[in-house]
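Forum > Structural Biology > Help requests

Title: Can anyone predict the 3D structure of GntR family transcriptional regulator?

Hi all, first post here. I have the sequence for GntR family transcriptional regulator but no way to get a structure on my laptop. I'd be grateful if someone could post the structure tokens.
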Amino acid sequence: MAEPKYRELADELEAAIKSEATLLGVTLVDGAKLPTEPELAEHFQAARGTVRQALAGLAAEGLIETRGRAGTFVRRLPMLEYNVDSERPFRKDDTVSVSDTWSSVVEASGREPSQDFKFRIEPASATVAARLNIQPNDLVVVREMLRFVDDTPWSDQTTYYPYDVAKACGLDVPTDIPEGTVRRMAARGYVEHRVQHEISSRPASIDERRRFNLAPGVSVLLFRRLAVTESGTITRLTVEILPADRNVITHVTQHRTEVDQ
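Reply #1:
Sure, ran it for you. Structure tokens for GntR family transcriptional regulator below:
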């Protein structure tokens, strides 16, 4: 079944933007002003409505943004790959924390990572309580990091710890944990045996659009992790919000060979 015309046009424009091609005399680099809708319609021999639909799709992917009467501009942020495998059960030979892994990925891409840290103790909401297997309004320790890449807000990570676990592991303080919270918990006897991943997406809220400076229509990815010890104790719930115009979540499955078995 053939793709709709607007989708074909969107795919062609997306390829041109990602390759920084020249279109109607405009080199489609970040910040470049796109030709007008009538110019694009004439060039591609398409109806203006089709062009408008194609542009709306690209805006939702975060590749372009419309600035009122000023026109439509290329807005291409470099993508950062977030590997699900960095959120795996604790191993004794781990030498870096998950946050260190994130920073190293950013630095390897030639960019500068930074983050704002916030701490609070609050009653658990019904949703958080259900995930952590505690009672609603039981206290939880919340450690939150708003992460930046080259001063651009990139992701917002919030981790909820049952208060008794946090207190036993010294996480109930508004300070950084140099070795990382996972290693700290492991050293205090709360070794994570498995981490359950859940990935979904939804439209960005008004607050998220402001916080991340999102173009209209850009969605956010929700990456939830629930960590459990071998005895069944839930140690944490991590909820990360990642704008879809600058983050991609990956996972590599390693198959065991007959020799390995």
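The chain has a mean pLDDT of 88. The domain at 80-250 is CATH 3.40.1410.10 (Chorismate lyase).
Shout if anything looks off.
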